[in-house]
Amino acid sequence: MQWTDRIRQVKIILVVMAIVIAVASLVVSHSMTRDLEAQERSRMEVWAEAMRSLNQADENTDLNLVLKVLNDNNTIPVIVLDHKGQVTDFRNLALKASSHGDSLRKATAIGHELLAKNRNIRIFLDGRHRDYIDVCYDESLMLKRISWYPFVQLGVVLLFVVIAIFALLTSKRAEQNKVWVGLSKETAHQLGTPISSLIAWVEILKETYPDDTLIPEMDKDVKRLQLIADRFSKIGSLPAPVPTDLLELLRHVVDYMDRRTSRRVKILTSFPAHQVIVDLNGSLFEWVIENLCKNAVDAMGGETGSILLKVEETESWIYLDVSDTGKGIRKRNINNVFRPGFTTKKRGWGLGLSLAKRIVEEYHHGHIYVKESVVGKGTTFRIELRKCHA
């Protein structure tokens, strides 16, 4: 829980940092954009005045300063329209045209678009305001880049946050894997010595009391312990699956569970008449089915009920449904049932379904999920496995 809380806190901090950086970037960029817009507007006003001076100049007017102002604009796209809407001059426009006439048509269209957006400065050339020019201007390339910059920066920050969170989750998962593998192998190691002693004691009991009917059952339970230790020892490795008759394996699990389950719970099966061959690691997959059956028994809470194991198949897939008539799972918990540590029981570690998911998906490349669940009526888990083709 401490690790989970730490991860949650780090994620919150990263998200808050990303929001702060994004907001600060947008505020600063907006301020810079407004300042640059005002500066370009001021430059265009000076440029428009120079155009007015040029249009009203006579043979005694010194045009050196006017021409310098006009020629110094190398960044802001500008189009000059007369009072009839015709282009008289344009510059700093990237036009793809095959002729001068084509360039004028395109410049005229752009000029009227800017005029419609009120991006123009009108200069009157006479006192009666009949003759005038419209200096239409667009944003410079620098201004456009500054306008887009915060969004690019925001994307980079979000990408960084996503990568950081993914790295944290991967680190968490790797640490969990190491803990589980170490715990499993240590458990198998610790069980080895007492199991060996129990096997020896059972053999002595068989020789001493050859007619006792309880000793064979004790022998089965000891062998069961040996199988469990073997399962724990395989966690963390990738045991090679072999072609296995799924129905025979399920019958073995049903037989074992039926002998050790309350008589009030019936375990039913619905299997095809022929063999169903699947690549399996038998001992680990039995563990999955046992976990599902034990959870089903717990879900009934000691009341009368039934567990149904049903196998269906298609050309490529095997579908195994484990259904019970227990208390069901609430909708808000369905997405959490396979999460390590999640449990609705008063006692339990919440690892059974998590291990089952890992065995099915990582070791057998299949799928396991809650097919359906109704509170008060029961739950169905589905396992999907690829069919083994000879």
From TrEMBL:
Transmembrane segments: 12-32, 148-169
SUPFAM superfamilies: ATPase domain of HSP90 chaperone/DNA topoisomerase II/histidine kinase
Catalytic activity: ATP + protein L-histidine = ADP + protein N-phospho-L-histidine
Keyword Kinase in record: yes
GO molecular function: ATP binding; protein histidine kinase activity
Cross-referenced PROSITE patterns: HIS_KIN
Keywords: ATP-binding, Kinase, Membrane, Nucleotide-binding, Phosphoprotein, Transferase, Transmembrane, Transmembrane helix, Two-component regulatory system
Enzyme Commission number(s) from the entry: 2.7.13.3
Domain Histidine kinase: 186-389
One Pfam family this sequence matches: HATPase_c
InterPro entries, alphabetized: HATPase_C_sf, HATPase_dom, His_kinase_dom, Sig_transdc_His_kin-like_C
Biological processes per GO annotation: phosphorelay signal transduction system
Name this polypeptide is given: histidine kinase
UniProt organism field: Hallella mizrahii
The organism's taxonomic lineage, starting at the top: Bacteria, Pseudomonadati, Bacteroidota, Bacteroidia, Bacteroidales
